[in-house]
Specification:
Elements: H1 3-11, H2 13-16, H3 20-31, H4 52-61, H5 83-86, H6 91-104, E1 105-106, E2 110-111, H7 113-127, H8 142-145, H9 148-151, H10 159-172, H11 179-193, E3 203-204, H12 225-233, H13 239-246, E4 253-254, E5 264-265, H14 276-282, H15 294-301, H16 306-311, H17 319-335, E6 345-346, H18 366-370
Antiparallel strand pairs: 1-2, 3-6, 4-5
Helix pairs in contact: 3-17, 6-11, 7-11, 13-17
Protein name: Peroxidase
Disulfide bonds: 90-347, 111-194
Enzyme class: oxidoreductase
């Protein structure tokens, strides 16, 4: 079956797959393999002091609520500067989402380099968190505000997206939009703008912290499984959640790991949020066009992570389980370092709708696809 047909078929699973009940059961099993450790202000707040949103986020972090929000949408949105929009916290975020998504689409290849960079920036800002690093790091906007985009080697390739984030912040800060929220919201807009990507539940109200984040807290593409599992345990992220997060490499291209093959993707459909990445990493000899990071290969083979990795390799049957597992894990990641979780407000309804099917060309021109990509290292859970 050709790639295009598989992607369309995968997108129609929710309504057409005859084993949907079994698939949902499997999805729930994979999605639930995460830590229930609380973070931020939820560590100390008793349940009777939680706001409705705080209680929802606690349930999400515990695997007790649905991490995707597919049904809550705007049927119409008021103009930006009207009293109606000012009265609705999420109204301005709908305008921001529309602005962002319009710049992230590629009519030929799905989602484009800006989308990939926004996902990577979301990981780098939030993923800097360490339980042992004190009050800095996490999803606080520091990667842009402290100019880490430009000054730290781990962030090679991020300056152009940080320039774009700064421009968006200048445009929307008059509406009370923080850089911390803008970075995480852009990552979720990018994810759902990519065909087949999940609509991750999204919350706003984070506070900016311009202090530099801790160093040496982001993963490297050459790290082994022990190093990666220990690094993410320090972020309250379990090995299974790590496997789900690293799947965002499905839309990645690399420019520094192997400069002789700069621009090569990590799977054969880098504009589509599909599960091909998992299966192609596991292949002894993968497609010639892709690059494999040793960190990904290590996770695919380690006894602590191999089972979950293999659970995401089915092109047809793994899309729903992975989307749910990724959504839950990314919600946790996006809350790291946030100490006012109980004050946040959900604005999932502002996100674009999911694109559940997509017809890419059978042979994408990856030189064309990546020619406007700024040089960049691997994205998401492996930095």
């Amino acid at each position: 079956m050709k790639t295009a047909a598989l992607i369309v078929f995968a997108g129609r699973l929710a309504s057409a797959f005859p084993g949907m009940r079994e698939l949902k059961s499997r999805a729930a099993g994979l999605e639930s393999r995460g830590t229930n450790e609380m973070i931020g202000d939820l560590l100390t707040l008793p349940d009777d002091k939680l706001t409705p949103t705080g209680a929802q986020i606690k349930a999400l972090l515990s695997g007790k609520d649905q991490p995707e929000g597919s049904l809550d949408v705007y049927l119409g949105v008021p103009a930006k500067d009207t009293p109606e929009c000012k009265a609705d916290t999420c109204c301005i975020w709908k305008h921001i989402a529309d602005d962002m998504s319009s710049k992230m689409k590629d009519s030929i290849a799905g989602c484009n380099s800006l989308a990939r960079q926004c996902v990577r920036l979301g990981f780098h800002d939030a993923g800097s968190f360490s339980k042992n690093a004190g009050s800095t790091g996490g999803a606080t906007g520091h990667t842009v505000l402290a100019r880490e985009c430009y000054d730290r080697p781990i962030n090679r390739g991020l300056p152009s997206v940080c320039d774009q984030m700064t421009a968006w912040h200048e445009q929307y800060k008059q509406y009370g939009v923080s850089m911390a929220d803008l970075i995480q919201f852009a990552a979720n807009v990018a994810t759902v703008t990519c065909p087949l990507g999940p609509r991750v539940r999204s919350f706003v109200g984070r506070k900016d912290n311009p202090a530099p984040g801790p160093e040496n807290t982001l993963p490297q593409p050459t790290q082994n499984a022990d190093e990666l599992i220990n690094l993410f345990a320090d972020k309250t992220i379990s090995p299974d959640e790590l496997v789900a997060l690293v799947g965002a490499h499905t839309t990645a291209t690399q420019h520094f790991f192997d400069q002789r093959r700069a621009g090569s993707p990590l799977d054969t459909t880098p504009g589509v949020w599909d599960v091909r990445f998992y299966g192609q990493v596991r292949q002894p000899i993968g497609p010639a066009m892709i690059t494999k990071f040793p960190s990904d290969v290590a996770l695919s083979q380690d006894s602590r992570t191999r089972g979950t990795w293999d659970g995401f390799t089915g092109v047809i049957t793994s899309q729903l389980p992975w989307n749910l597992a990724y959504a839950r894990a990314y919600i946790r990641l996006s809350m790291l370092g946030v100490n006012n979780i109980n004050e946040l407000q959900e604005c999932t309804k502002a996100l674009p709708s999911r694109l559940d099917s997509f017809l890419p060309t059978d042979k994408l021109d990856f030189e064309l696809l990546s020619k406007n990509d700024p040089p960049r290292e691997n994205m998401t859970a492996s930095g």
